[in-house]
Amino acid sequence: MADREAMNDLLSFFFDQAEGELATLNQAIAASDAELVCRSAHRLVGASAGCGLSGLVAPLRELEQHSQKGDLSMAGTLYTTITSLLTESRAEIDRWNSAGGS
User: Fold this and answer.
1) d(Cα 61, Cα 43) in Å, to the nearest integer?
2) Which of 28, 84, 94, 98 falls between 20 and 30 A from 3, CA-CA?
3) For residues 29 and 51, is the Cβ–Cβ distance under 8 A?
């Protein structure tokens, strides 16, 4: 039970932090700030991988790699994919918790 509580605390912290980082990412995309897009994507890659949310890593890494080259042509599409995956991940975790974690 303590492990489950610790994981839920970690995931809650991740989702709270991710919301702020996604806001920064969205603003950076709107401002065509490739450097900030790259930094934000990089932070989210590490946090997602660290929390076991591996489905988020590939699109975040793609965004990071493109932005390193100054290419933001796919940034909007990738941002939409990332936010959708994040929402789906949170909903799946909520369903798991509602079912008693089984």
Assistant:
1) 10
2) 84
3) no
Give the structural domain span for 40: 2-97
Distance CA 76, CA 29 (A): 7
Q: What is the CATH number of the domain that holds 52?
A: 1.20.120.160
Structure tokens at 10: 């970690």
8 A C-beta contact, residue 68 and residue 38: yes
The pLDDT of residue 8 is 83
Residue 102 included in any domain: no
Number of domains composing the chain: 1
For the chain of 102 residues, list the mean pLDDT of each consecutive stretch of 10: 79 92 97 98 94 94 98 98 95 85 59
How would you class 43 by CB atoms within 10 Å of its CB: exposed for 0-12, middle for 13-18, buried for 19 or more?
Answer: middle
